[in-house]
């Protein structure tokens, strides 16, 4: 068997992937990587200071603001701005990963290396996500400031990091898929950000309107609605909310504080037939499972797309 025949069948370790090594070396050599990291942290620090000023300025009836309230405000705000930044940074590193190679006319050189399509795709994705995870880890000390004031538990920090990481993986995989599907980087970026804006802004607005309408209807007719209907509506709203990272994070925190559980809990439903305890699963679990499944499908389709391009 020749070397050309054996190479595509050989399993290459992700950390020894030549695409990963080349991309990470090229990215960290330049000024852009450190500039993006510095600007990212400066924005986080400025936003945290702004939240601190706002939290301390708002006083309760006693004339002072509790440390727990300040800590929770800081933590929620930092996670929110992190989610916003990661949502737009993660696709930017992958939307040009493959289409950029074609535009620079270096894609044919990659094909001559006899790297399998799977190795190429995973290498591009891993190298881009490595830098995104660097941004997430660099901001952990800012989240830890909330512990100085109290009001935030360790499980909240862990769950917030999970939601941020899953969001980055899925949006990164989506950007890579459109990069392989589109001929030009500009069209890949436009398509990627159009879908991203729909997921992060359009979908939450639609869900918020739906939640407001159903909540208003249930509050006015709660005892007149059958328990089965309320259960179906509750499960439906939970499934819809789990499709968006912001809604998943908000509801996870809400139920964690009210039900003291990060996995499974019961919600009380009142109807004409009595009170029913409905078992529910925390939104972050549904969100993670759904988004990781989407990421897996996108990676598989990207690999197949690259194979068709090579053929």
Automatic annotation (TrEMBL):
Q: Tell me where on the tree of life, at the top rank, the source sits.
A: Bacteria
Segments crossing the lipid bilayer: 33-54, 74-98, 128-150, 157-178, 190-220, 232-256, 276-300
- Organism, scientific name: Candidatus Thermofonsia Clade 1 bacterium
What keywords appear on the UniProt entry? Membrane, Transmembrane, Transmembrane helix
Asked whether the keyword Membrane is assigned, the reply is: yes
Q: What is this protein called?
A: ABC transporter permease
- The UniProt record lists the keyword Glycosyltransferase: no
């Amino acid at each position: 068997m020749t070397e050309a025949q054996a190479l595509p069948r050989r399993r290459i370790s992700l950390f020894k992937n030549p695409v990963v090594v080349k991309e990470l070396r090229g990215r960290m050599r330049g000024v852009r990587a450190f500039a993006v990291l510095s600007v990212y942290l400066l924005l986080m620090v400025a936003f945290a200071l702004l939240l601190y000023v706002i939290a301390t300025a708002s006083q309760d009836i006693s004339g002072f603001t509790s440390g727990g309230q300040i800590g929770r405000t800081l933590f929620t705000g930092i996670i929110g701005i992190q989610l916003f930044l990661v949502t737009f940074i993660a696709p930017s590193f992958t939307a040009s990963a493959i289409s950029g190679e074609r535009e620079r006319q270096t894609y044919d050189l990659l094909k001559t290396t006899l790297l399998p399509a799977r190795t190429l795709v995973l290498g591009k994705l891993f190298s881009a996500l490595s830098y995104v995870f660097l941004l997430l880890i660099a901001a952990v000390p800012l989240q830890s400031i909330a512990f100085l004031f109290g009001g935030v538990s360790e499980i909240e920090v862990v769950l917030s990091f999970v939601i941020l990481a899953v969001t980055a993986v899925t949006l990164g995989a989506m950007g890579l898929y459109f990069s392989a599907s589109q001929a030009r980087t500009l069209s890949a970026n436009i398509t990627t950000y159009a879908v991203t804006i729909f997921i992060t802004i359009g979908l939450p607005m639609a869900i918020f309107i739906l939640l407001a309408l159903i909540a208003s209807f249930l509050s006015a007719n709660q005892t007149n609605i059958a328990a089965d209907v309320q259960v179906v509506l509750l499960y439906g709203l939970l499934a819809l909310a789990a499709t968006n990272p912001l809604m998943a994070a908000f509801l996870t925190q809400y139920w964690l504080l009210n039900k003291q559980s990060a996995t499974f809990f019961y919600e009380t439903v009142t109807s004409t037939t009595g009170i029913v305890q409905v078992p529910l699963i925390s939104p972050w679990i549904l969100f993670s499972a759904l988004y990781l499944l989407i990421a897996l499908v996108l990676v598989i389709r990207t690999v197949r797309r690259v194979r068709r391009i090579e053929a």
